[in-house]
Every structure is written in structure tokens, then in C-alpha cells.
Write a structure and sequence with these properties.
The chain is of the alpha/beta class. It has 18 helices and 15 strands. A hairpin with a 2-residue loop joins β11 and β12. The chain binds pyridoxal-5'-phosphate. Its cofactor is pyridoxal 5'-phosphate.
Length: 449
């Protein structure tokens, strides 16, 4: 839709009067005025004044194929005309829904062959949470209901999602977490590793899972959930000892392992899924974002044969009106076709990912940068007051926000989580655009220090 100029010039006022934004401090927002994004092309977005930004965050970690792909719009238009909606309840499906399920599992491991569709990552979280409980109940273990997540993890904004996530500022609103959800630590070596090596620290935090299962009782725990790489928590890449130990513990204690692939899925790490990068197979894996590159809302849960065997032998009383929506499914199919045919996942693994890593870590020579972590096109840059001692800034949020705003002024969209700068650009980002990202960030850091 092209908004007429007369309406556009008044949009800020209309927005302030009527629109409550997600995750926004509305008082500050109303004072500063809303940024209005009007158009996107490739890795760039344009605001209502025509200002161009390199979107090094792919919207919200999702526009993997970049903006402006006409093929998706055309496929969506055709499907809208053919069948704009039908549901998948009570034993029905539509052709795109079923074909999308087949296309997704083709990229998962040999033991993952089923998908349950949702509209978002949060709904996917609620879905696997219920599935895990139904799974154990049907195996005659109805007490296995508790789920363990991680401090600083993010799994969405529904009541279950916000509870499973470990964001304190979300728990403080709405009396969360709900009963039966527990948390262990995060593998954030830079901030919490003390004198341990990263490898030692990775083992230590993984073993918190074992201790928590002991505390709660193995017969009461259904599952453990974590993002392969913690995203919203700061792009925290775990030490290499971490995932093998988690995998060992989940198997030894007979609890389901849930890999939240909402960010890591569909090429972001240079593998189709983040768990493949770390060499393990989950029992359940929520997905969303990169599944449709954000062109339309679609998510789902990848279900391993172990769990699917039970769920498909029951009447699973769960679903959303738009689960498997045919138009969203078509957008996702077209998105996956582009990822496959343009070999974008391989590009992240072999070309742009390594280039990004080199460029990102070139910032390590800056006085303010203590650590540069990245896997594929997902990067976390740690700012530090004193990088020799890993001393943090007194007000980490203020530092991050300042640097982020400086980047935005210069036409670069990045995100800050506390004192970590995060990048997650479209998988089509060029070498020159990566250079622009790093040099703009360096200029902002120079101005801050
Ligand atoms: N899980 C992870 C790891 C996420 O990063 C997010 C969103 O950022 C979600 C779940 C929730 O997804 P959605 O915002 O689509 O509900």
C-alpha cells in the first residue's frame, strides 16, 4: 500500500494517539516520535523521509532473503485468488500447507519428519510446551510436567513463552514465571566465567542442568529448552563443551531436549538449523522468522520421530485458526525455494559468514571491545570498560543504547542488548555492506570512547 503524502506527514501524531507498540517505552517514544519505515530493498530499508539504512538486523532476525522479492508477492497473490484461507482442523489440509511440511523436514535431520504449524515463535513455544507434557502423560508419566529454561533466554511473549524465557524484566510484569517452570544459568563466559577457561565454564553451566533435575526430581521434569545460540540475550555463543554436555545430561536423565530455532533456523548460522551447527538433534524445535523471511507470519514446531510417534497416536487438542494458513505457507515455500536455489545457506557457511567474522573481529583492536563472537551471520560484540580485566560499564544499557543510536543516525540498524551490540543481517548482505557495517560501528565506538 502506498500511503498518500498528506497522511504520511501526520502519521507520527496518529501513531502517538492510537498505537501501543510492542517492547517500547511509550513515554519516551511519544516524546521522540516514531521512526516510520516505508520501504525495503535488498538489505536496506527506507524511512518516510527517504533516509536509507543498512538493516544489519534483518528486521527482527528474520528477513533472511532480504527485502523486495517479487516472487513471494506473486506467489501470495496467486494463492490469495485460489484459496485465501482454509484451516487444518478436524483432519483437513490445503496443498501448500502439506507441501511446506515436506519441504521443511527435508532440511532437518533423519529423525525429524513432522511439523506442527503456528503463526509465530511464541505460539510454537506454547505448542511444544503442551506437546512435551502430553508426550510424557501418554507414556504413563503424568508427573513429568516441569520445564527448565535458562536465565536470559528468550522464547516469546505469551504467558508460557515469557515464563520459559529468563528475562527478568518480563517476569516482573504479570507475576511470571508460571508454576512448573525453572531456570538455570547461561553460558555467558565473558560476564560470568570468572577465572575459568571458556571450556571449563561451558561444562560448569551445563552441569547446572543436572543439579536442577536432581533438585526437582527426574520424574517431575519434562524438558529442557535453550536457543542453540542465545539471541535476544546478546548473541551468546556457548563454549564448545556446552552442547555435548547438555545432550549427555538430557539423554541420561530421560528429559526432552528442545532447541529453540526461531532465530538460528533457516541458514542464519550457516547450517539449516543451529543444532546442526553444534552437532546434536533435538526432540522438539520451534521455528518461525526465517521460515518465511518475515514476509508473512508463519511458525511451527519440528517434531522428532520419538515424540511424533506418541503425538500422532493421540487426539492432540491444540491448534490455531491460522495453523498452516495456505497463503503464509506459499510465502514460506517460495522463501525456502529462494534459500535453496540461491544457495544462501552455503553462502553463509563458506563465504559471507567467514567474511563477516573477520570484519566483526577486526573491531577487537578497539579499546572498548572485549569480545567479538559470531557464527554465520549472527554476531555479538561485547563492549567493556576495561577489556584487560573484563570489567563492565556501570550502566551497560546506557552505553549500548548510545552506540546503537549513533549507528542509526549514520544509517545503520543494529541492536544493543545491555553492553553487547548485536548483528543479524539478511543472508544476502554483500561484502561491501559488511564493510559499511563495521566501519560505521567503529566510528560510533570512537565517538563513545
Ligand atoms: N524464540 C526465540 C529464540 C525468539 O528469538 C523469539 C522472538 O524473537 C521467539 C521465540 C518468539 O517469536 P515471535 O516473536 O514470532 O512470537
Amino acid at each position: 500500500m502506498t500511503t498518500p503524502n498528506a497522511v504520511l506527514s501526520n502519521l507520527g501524531a496518529i501513531d502517538a494517539a492510537h498505537h501501543i507498540h510492542p517492547f517500547s517505552d511509550m513515554k519516551k517514544l511519544n516524546a521522540a516520535g516514531t521512526r516510520i519505515i516505508q520501504r525495503g530493498e535488498g538489505s536496506h530499508i527506507f524511512d518516510n523521509h527517504g533516509k536509507k539504512y543498512l538493516d544489519a538486523f534483518a528486521g527482527l532476525w528474520c528477513v533472511n532473503i532480504g527485502y523486495g522479492r517479487r516472487e513471494i508477492a506473486d506467489a501470495v497473490f496467486a494463492q490469495m485468488n485460489e484459496l485465501p484461507y482454509y484451516n487444518c482442523f478436524f483432519g483437513t489440509t490445503t496443498p501448500p500447507t502439506t507441501l511446506l511440511a515436506e519441504k521443511i523436514v527435508a532440511h532437518a535431520g533423519p529423525n525429524i519428519n513432522h511439523v506442527f504449524f503456528t503463526n509465530s515463535g511464541s505460539e510454537a513455544t506454547d505448542t511444544w510446551f503442551r506437546m512435551a507434557r502430553v508426550y510424557w502423560a501418554h507414556l504413563g508419566k503424568p508427573t513429568k510436567t516441569m520445564v527448565i529454561g535458562r536465565r536470559n533466554g528468550y522464547h516469546g511473549s505469551t504467558v508460557a513463552g515469557a515464563s520459559l524465557g529468563g528475562m527478568k524484566y518480563m517476569h516482573e510484569q504479570g507475576a511470571l514465571p508460571i508454576e512448573g517452570i525453572h531456570h538455570i544459568g547461561q553460558p555467558y563466559w565473558y560476564a560470568e566465567g570468572g577465572d575459568l577457561t571458556p571450556a571449563e565454564f561451558g561444562l560448569k553451566v551445563a552441569r547446572e542442568l543436572e543439579a536442577k533435575i536432581d533438585e526437582l526430581g527426574e520424574d517431575n521434569v519434562a524438558a529442557f529448552v535453550a536457543e542453540p545460540i542465545q539471541g535476544a540475550g546478546g548473541v551468546i555463543v556457548p563454549p564448545e563443551t556446552y552442547w555435548p554436555e547438555i545432550k549427555r545430561i538430557c539423554a541420561a536423565r530421560n528429559i526432552l531436549l528442545v532447541a529453540d530455532e526461531v532465530i538460528c533456523g533457516f541458514g542464519r548460522t550457516g547450517s539449516w538449523f543451529g543444532h546442526q551447527h553444534f552437532g546434536f538433534e533435538p526432540d522438539l524445535a520451534p521455528v518461525a522468522k526465517g521460515l518465511s523471511s518475515g514476509y508473512l507470519p508463519v511458525g511451527g514446531v519440528l517434531v522428532s520421530d520419538r515424540v511424533a510417534k506418541v503425538i500422532t497416536s493421540t487426539d492432540f487438542n491444540h491448534g490455531y485458526t491460522y495453523s498452516g494458513h495456505p497463503v503464509c505457507a506459499v510465502a514460506a515455500i517460495e522463501n525456502l525455494r529462494i534459500l535453496e536455489e540461491e544457495k544462501l545457506v552455503e553462502r553463509v557457511r563458506d563465504d559471507i559468514g567467514p567474511y563477516f567474522a573477520k570484519s566483526w573481529s577486526s573491531l577487537l583492536d578497539h579499546d572498548m571491545i572485549g569480545e567479538a563472537q559470531s557464527v554465520g551471520l549472527m554476531g555479538g560484540l561485547q563492549m567493556a570498560f576495561d577489556k584487560k580485566t573484563r570489567q563492565r560499564f556501570e550502566k551497560p544499557d546506557d552505553v549500548g543504547t548510545w552506540v546503537r543510536n549513533k549507528c542509526i543516525e549514520a544509517g545503520l540498524i543494529m541492536r544493543a542488548t545491555g553492553d553487547r551490540m548485536l548483528a543479524s543481517p539478511p543472508l544476502i548482505i554483500t561484502h561491501e555492506e559488511v564493510d559499511f557495517m563495521t566501519s560505521t560501528l567503529r566510528t560510533a565506538l570512537d565517538a563513545a570512547w
